TrEMBL record:
Residues 142-303 form the Amidohydrolase-related domain. InterPro entries: Amidohydro-rel (IPR006680), Metal_Hydrolase (IPR032466). One of its GO terms (molecular function) is hydrolase activity. SUPFAM superfamilies: Metallo-dependent hydrolases (SSF51556). It comes from Grifola frondosa. The lineage of its organism: Eukaryota, Fungi, Dikarya, Basidiomycota, Agaricomycotina. Pfam families: Amidohydro_2. Transmembrane segments: none annotated. This is Protein fluG.
Length: 310
């Protein structure tokens, strides 16, 4: 970790299960500033719904009306607690992996109640509770955006680049326009460079004050040429005070190392070229680097960090 010179890790601790993960605080030994949590909201919601389903199944009657009202109350209180918690830097939604980014803003209560029945029945037979029902996933996202916005915490969205579990055509952030507009005071961070939809993400970042673009995960997943192209696309239209680097490092420490090293090399190459062509001055390029690697994230996630220069 030393050569990465990462000062502070923001870690999504809802990835995998408790026995495959170190506690988020364990990572403090590698950085000069303490690690903060990113709360994966679908995992929180599933935990709450599992508890309610257990209670109802034990009592011997399943009432969708009661389940929905209890679920809404508990989800609201859990997310509100996260907003108040200084250990939480923000939220992450994996709606993209479940039912796609064409998230609906207006949801009808009878539809939500109806969607609960198959979720509970599946849980009763399989003993696993996974929310992959569009209306319910959209409800969780809307609830998160509302509460996060009230508390000033950003909400990250998985967009684009993933595995064959996502429907590629539903992973473009262009589909998010209705929710971006519906929650103008909620900071929305588009993750993973939205690859291969980087230009669409750039457009949204340019035209909506509440949208930010995180250019992670392409390191080391794309070829070096591909990484260069994505960085160029990010810089085509995105305001440079709204772009943020990340490693998307997980499971293997090398993913932090490569994510840091390759991002620096590629951004250096792209900006150096711009300076040579006199598109940018050296001073402007330095400002872009400072913003992308430190200042923007420091501001968006309310980290209040002073840069630790080694
Ligand atoms: Zn993701």
């Amino acid at each position: 970790m030393a050569p990465t010179r990462i000062q502070c890790i923001l870690i999504d601790d809802g990835l995998g299960s408790a026995w495959t993960l170190h506690h988020y605080k364990w990572h403090d030994q590698f950085t000069t500033s303490p690690t903060k949590r990113i709360v994966r909201v679908e995992i929180v919601a599933e935990g709450i719904l599992r508890d309610i389903a257990d209670e109802q199944l034990q009592a011997g009657h399943v009432d969708p009306k009661t389940i929905l009202s209890t679920f809404t109350a508990r989800l609201t209180s859990e997310l509100t607690a996260c907003v108040m918690d200084t250990e939480v830097a923000g939220f992450k939604s994996i709606a993209c992996y479940r039912t796609g980014l064409d998230i609906v803003v207006q949801l009808d209560t009878p539809g939500l109640e109806r969607s609960l029945v198959p979720i509970i029945l599946r849980y009763e037979t399989t003993k696993t509770l996974r929310i992959a029902d569009k209306i319910m996933n959209d409800f969780i996202v809307n609830t998160t955006l509302r509460i996060a916005g009230e508390g000033g915490k950003p909400v990250q969205f998985h967009t684009g680049l993933g595995d064959n579990d996502i429907t590629l055509s539903l992973s473009t952030p262009a589909l998010m326009q209705p929710i971006i507009k519906a929650y103008p005071s909620t900071k929305i961070v588009l993750l993973h460079s939205s690859y291969p939809y980087t230009q669409q993400a750039g457009y949204l970042t340019a035209v909506y004050p509440n949208v930010y673009l995180d250019f992670g995960e392409i390191f080391p997943f794309l070829s070096v040429d591909g990484q260069r192209d994505v960085i160029k696309q990010v810089l085509e239209l995105c305001p440079t005070n709204k772009i943020m680097w990340s490693t998307d490092g997980h499971y293997w420490p090398e993913s932090y190392y490569l994510g840091a090293l390759q991002a620096r090399e590629v951004l250096y190459e792209v900006l150096e070229n711009s300076i040579r062509r006199q598109d940018l001055t050296l001073a402007q390029a330095i400002e872009i680097v400072k913003r992308a690697f430190f200042e923007n994230a420091n501001k968006v996630y309310n980290l209040c960090l002073q840069p630790h220069i080694v």
